[in-house]
Here is the input.
Amino acid sequence: MLNVAIVGASGYTGLELIRILHCHPEVAVTCLTSEQSAGKRISEVFPTLRGRCDLILENLEPVRVSEKADIIFTALPHKAAMEVVPTFLKLGRKVIDLSADYRLSDPEVYGQWYEPHLNPANLKKAVYGLPEIRRAKIRGAKLVANPGCYPTSIILGLAPLLKQGLIHPHSIISDSASGVTGAGRSAKVDSLYCEVNEGYKAYGVGGVHRHTPEIEQELSLLAGEPLKVTFTPHLVPMDRGILSTIYAAPLKEMTSADLVRLYAEFYAGEPFVRVLPQGSLPSTAFVRGSNFCDIAPLVDARTGRIIIVSAIDNLVKGASGQAVQNMNLVCGFPETTGLDGLALFP
Amino acid sequence: MLNVAIVGASGYTGLELIRILHCHPEVAVTCLTSEQSAGKRISEVFPTLRGRCDLILENLEPVRVSEKADIIFTALPHKAAMEVVPTFLKLGRKVIDLSADYRLSDPEVYGQWYEPHLNPANLKKAVYGLPEIRRAKIRGAKLVANPGCYPTSIILGLAPLLKQGLIHPHSIISDSASGVTGAGRSAKVDSLYCEVNEGYKAYGVGGVHRHTPEIEQELSLLAGEPLKVTFTPHLVPMDRGILSTIYAAPLKEMTSADLVRLYAEFYAGEPFVRVLPQGSLPSTAFVRGSNFCDIAPLVDARTGRIIIVSAIDNLVKGASGQAVQNMNLVCGFPETTGLDGLALFP
Amino acid sequence: MLNVAIVGASGYTGLELIRILHCHPEVAVTCLTSEQSAGKRISEVFPTLRGRCDLILENLEPVRVSEKADIIFTALPHKAAMEVVPTFLKLGRKVIDLSADYRLSDPEVYGQWYEPHLNPANLKKAVYGLPEIRRAKIRGAKLVANPGCYPTSIILGLAPLLKQGLIHPHSIISDSASGVTGAGRSAKVDSLYCEVNEGYKAYGVGGVHRHTPEIEQELSLLAGEPLKVTFTPHLVPMDRGILSTIYAAPLKEMTSADLVRLYAEFYAGEPFVRVLPQGSLPSTAFVRGSNFCDIAPLVDARTGRIIIVSAIDNLVKGASGQAVQNMNLVCGFPETTGLDGLALFP
Amino acid sequence: MLNVAIVGASGYTGLELIRILHCHPEVAVTCLTSEQSAGKRISEVFPTLRGRCDLILENLEPVRVSEKADIIFTALPHKAAMEVVPTFLKLGRKVIDLSADYRLSDPEVYGQWYEPHLNPANLKKAVYGLPEIRRAKIRGAKLVANPGCYPTSIILGLAPLLKQGLIHPHSIISDSASGVTGAGRSAKVDSLYCEVNEGYKAYGVGGVHRHTPEIEQELSLLAGEPLKVTFTPHLVPMDRGILSTIYAAPLKEMTSADLVRLYAEFYAGEPFVRVLPQGSLPSTAFVRGSNFCDIAPLVDARTGRIIIVSAIDNLVKGASGQAVQNMNLVCGFPETTGLDGLALFP
Here is the structure.
């Protein structure tokens, strides 16, 4: 039984980690921190936990957290993560970081999109934690950079095609949409119920969303050459879910059947990627609360374009579920431990 | 490992049974029936199940179902259940019936609210499956009548007071509200998204909802005298959840603190009832997907009335979760097996 | 053409006033204030207005506002209203106040529920602006206290019975539910989309909601004797709407048909109250965006209780629509001017 | 005062026509038909209308309808429209057809996507009713083919660029999303609240949605050459609204500022098209219930692609509002009559 700390536990990804780990037989959650709610019980912040997890939220003191835990999940905003991760690592703890701080391997790129990186030394050692692409490296990692939610849906959606060089690398457009948990739990007028409900909108249009460099980094690695994408996020009035509708130009003629076969082979044996049979399409509703990524690749015969639709729960495969999957790999547990729950529908 | 059949698997309570039993270590789902979708895979009807439960839906042939299962859940409309349950019982199977057919112990009352009862012999043997009230009897039962969703929230909300004779039995009003899964999965204009969304309404007002006699039967038993209630159901634009706000006149003076103490003692040791501390109130959001019933009892000091607010997930504690809890009791498994998942929030 | 100012225009009731007055042929909106957004165009705050109302939001300087307008709507929080209303009145302006500051005729009661009243002199002159009950007095008023949203639904629901002494005045329970616009537009975690969505809860239970004294004041006046009510508000995951389900004990035997007749007579000729035919029930969805109050009174024959269900749009008949109705009365315009739009459904 | 009939009044576009025309000073609605609900009052089907429009729904007998109305709106499914429109025209009535039957000018194309066309003679005379593109022709028309909802958002979004030959005609991708009213009001499991709520999905992917040929017909006319588009519709859990995010490759270098200027000039004087200032983006929430189309064109500087985001209310500018705009043109009324209502937000 390993001990686990969740740093930044009063946000939605923190809560989701607690929910998932509650049924994980190999670990115990022993420490939760929250700057805003320190001193309160986590079950006062999230009454879903009442009677099952009533730990008192602590201030974030890295040394004390390290004393209480073998594995540390950092569910902090960017910058806040890289301020504490070095201490955790120095003290020999393993870290799964859910922030953006260790995802971009080049600190200069990080600097362009965020601010100067404070910890380039560990950045070099961090492993980008998308198990379907980097399983072997994650196994030995001390610091896993858990992928962003949009990037997870897009990279899994394109990996089979890019890996085999089947699409024009500069043709990629991802039109993606997220539920509102993606905006976090801080009090902002823009995230109020009445501002979001009954409306659908694009935001961060034109290549300005901070997930863009992460998507390009990983797709470039898969393609074997640098590429740029057009990525447009949208906000959907629902709690959870990301769906990406991805467009690309093929380099040779393929049918939808060819694509389904290609994807099914590429992801054969993957416990959390479901390639849908030809004619089926994913919905975020069918993965809600589960760690699945559902993918449907097809060809628009009239225009020749390839279209891939992929769906995840942004809080599970797009954040906390994937983080637990990474923890399982890092700790040598079976990869699906704690993650076999089915989606909650409706 | 026991084998389980779910008869009427293509509705929401059927799906919820599959979801819960998927993580239950003592049983295997071996047979699913659906009149409408026989021949299809259940995962075509509910893509959440893809890759995890792909059984083919069968027609409902009672003998064949009995051959495949030790325990049978009947998730059928009323009347359809009592047409097949006798066969299951005759063949020695244990039955957890989620319909209304075996809940009302008096067949005449059933006749007044539904239609003539077809199976009064088994009705006599059926046990009303509310474990917090009837645990001992459920343990030995062959036929469990799984309670209705509204009744579960109301009976658990009033049991401590009625059992101890602390309220006027004719003073009870329950103003209750349900999410839309309560209306089932059949194609009706009234249940269309655009008819339900962004609206709140009462329905079945004035003592005409069919859960009324069930509520009165059980509350009368608790009170030790026949009583009638005013029960008003409402429809809330959300998928899951029932919240009952219950009013009653006390027979002696009590404070909110007295009530919380009384309830906490009454439900001490109950794994699925959470009595909230004074000052806290339940929300359906905090039990969504879990088997909890959260209860807050208090006194309106200005008017002297007692108010109890109780919340459940209508598909879990109000249907399929409670059915699994009953199965655990019937089969001698630990009562919480398969039911320790936390609520999904948000 | 009269000039109108809206003080506190960047909240939801402010916006709703602009929306309604935009189609009002007798007035022009000439001044909008907002502390938070002064200097911005109102159409930057609410893009629905773009190209139709692009006024720049001003700081609230009462003298300057008075120079620009004949009629002033104050859509401010309580206390803020009574800080500026005296100036408006002194300068001869007519005021429709949407806050709670002038609703409670007794400053001591105001003090118990809010804080010491700053302006008892004008409080005495204010008229409670529920036209169906006080039409004549509103016509000559200089200061109208626009009713609260919950009180509007409850008072209209009970007036016919109380006025004729047909119910026991101490038997009243109102179980009411509101959409989320009722919580206003300020940035609070509790009002975030993901905190509210897919959940239903009671709040302010036990006679602590500040609308309680307003309800009791008006019902007592109708009954001709002081009375207390049990009032329980709930929060529904939808933008707009209030539905009150009201329970009372009759003083003589009546049928549902009697009640419908009584209500139809009482509200005969009222342009905005619709008494539903027996067997029909209201929904907030059917009044959304309109100034109607839909009411269904009936008898629960099994328990003898009277149940009244009434529905309004909290932002229209519960706030801004009623305010315009009051303005029409105060200014001598036909009462329905600007208010004949039908509900937006779906 | 002209008399108006609405054929197919019990669907959502029928109701929306009644709502809009209720405030139109030049027409009176005198006849409503509905096959499903003939004999009922429209206000029984849609209680929003109670007391304001209580006409009895009639069976669709074309001659009798023609006797009662000068202008006829056909809000019928495809095929049903072209079965009655010829009679209306023969009897000298003017027709605004909201179905797809007269939108595709080539009956062969209609045959490929629907079924053999029954009325090619009138098809030739029909005018495609997008006022911003065809105003002059609509003025003299006897039969107006009211555009589809998706096509309206896409054609208005691309007209300025195509008209001036600024984009590569074969580069167009429109990723569009609709609220659920777009699926109509018939009882289908797929449109149930619990099936749609809390989920986001693509449908009709790969060039199979029937709006595709309509989009291509109109864009080809604007471009002056035949073109094909990739069009992907999505379903959003909300009642109303369509947002199209459109991608295209420019033929010469342009900045976002250039595009905003181009669009503002192209749509100068248009009462219902709002070109947003640079940096602003539309939301369906900001046009809900109004006849506006909000458009934001911009350049993704990193990839060079042009992105246009356009938003409408699918039931207003995408159906019934545009139909009334067309009626105004056909009848010589000011174009905005009855259509100056602002969006309902929230």
In short: Chain A has two domains: 2-125, 150-314. The mean pLDDT of chain A is 98. Chain A touches chain D through 52 residues (CB under 8 Å). The radius of gyration of chain A is 20 Å.
